[in-house]
Write a structure and sequence with these properties.
Layout lengths: L6 H4 L1 E4 L7 E4 L1 H4 L2 H15 L6 E5 L2 H12 L3 E5 L9 E8 L2 E8 L8 E9 L3 H12 L3 E11 L4 H7 L4 E7 L2
Parallel strand pairs: 3-4, 3-7, 7-8, 8-9
Antiparallel strand pairs: 1-2, 5-6
Length: about 180
């Protein structure tokens, strides 16, 4: 399998979704193509090299899709950040603002051992609100964020700057201007 599959060419772009003027970057075409899916996992795993971490944390739900196979490939544990009401246990929760309202995510504090080194992963970095909140949750649970890794970054929405200002290194395989 050729690791150098051009994932950007494999990704479908849907104009005016979910609303007028929005150019949606759709990963389903990568996920449905076996070679592209394998290339995505390999390329993300390669991009994670150089970071010393114990766990990958992914946010519901596409963060699970990109994070779990990378964690498995690198022989790391996986931590879920989920929407409220989806996890049992000793939870830590944080709310944040989206472009269109409020949201919240939770992590089971017991899934993040004290001092655990965590790589935050998601499919998309846009404004950075979800990723920053995930980083905050890791720290509130007693972990240390080593960086944030994304399949896709929308460079003109400020997410990278938000994360880097907070001290988190950022990597993305694909970049787009919106």
């Amino acid at each position: 399998m050729d690791k150098q599959v051009d994932l950007k060419k494999q990704m479908r772009v849907i104009e005016d979704f979910p609303g007028p003027g929005i150019s949606y970057k759709d990963i389903t075409t990568i996920l449905s193509d076996a070679d592209a899916l394998q290339a995505m996992v390999e390329q993300l795993a390669d991009a994670a090299k150089g970071w010393d971490f114990d766990y990958v944390l992914g946010t519901e739900s596409r963060g699970f899709i990109v994070g779990v196979p990378v964690a498995a490939r690198l022989h790391k544990g996986f931590i879920m950040a989920r929407k409220p009401g989806k996890l049992p246990g000793n939870l830590v929760r944080k709310s944040y603002t989206l472009e269109y309202g409020e949201a919240a995510i939770e992590v089971d504090r017991d899934s993040v051992p004290d001092g655990a080194r965590v790589l935050v992963m998601d499919d998309l970095l846009a404004t950075g609100g979800t990723a920053k909140t995930a980083c905050d949750l890791v720290e509130a649970a007693g972990g240390v964020v080593v960086g944030a890794l994304f399949l896709t970054e929308l460079t003109d929405l400020g997410g990278r700057a938000l994360l880097e200002k907070a001290g988190y290194p950022v990597r993305a395989l694909l970049t787009w201007t919106n």
